[in-house]
Amino acid sequence: MTAVPGPITVVIADDERTVRESLALILEAQPDLEVVATAADGETALRTCTELRPDVALLDVRMPGRDGLWVLAALAGRGLVGPGPGAVQVLMLTTFDHARYQADAVAHGARGVLLKSLPWEELVAQVRAAHGARHRG
């Protein structure tokens, strides 16, 4: 008998409540995705990702205080980003299409930087692709 894999677990971190709630609604509508937590700031996001070890984390690049790039660097410094069991696949979210964000995020192991204006179908596809990368390396 083959075990049925569980849903892809996701943590969402964004300082804007509307963005967090909208993303959660979109992702939770998918039968294979489960939002296990949301965070409004970087400190909470780091603590949540460290404790829950979600398959995928969606982190806002710019948040007051500790931002998403800080969270990504902290997770990478703890060896929690990358392929393999227990690793978190990180997708950065931004309103602004800046090459600097892309370079900083990729340097710390993010799977990509997504614009918040991305169609929801593409967002869902990117979350699934990031999860697949966890197993491919």
From TrEMBL:
Residues the record lists as 4-aspartylphosphate modifications: 60
Name of the molecule in the record: Response regulatory domain-containing protein
Domain spans labelled Response regulatory: 9-131
Provenance organism: Streptomyces cheonanensis
Pfam families: Response_reg
Phylogenetic lineage: Bacteria, Bacillati, Actinomycetota, Actinomycetes, Kitasatosporales
Entry keyword set: DNA-binding, Phosphoprotein, Transcription, Transcription regulation
Superkingdom of source: Bacteria
InterPro entries documented for this protein: CheY-like_superfamily, NreC/VraR/RcsB-like_REC, Sig_transdc_resp-reg_receiver, WalR-like
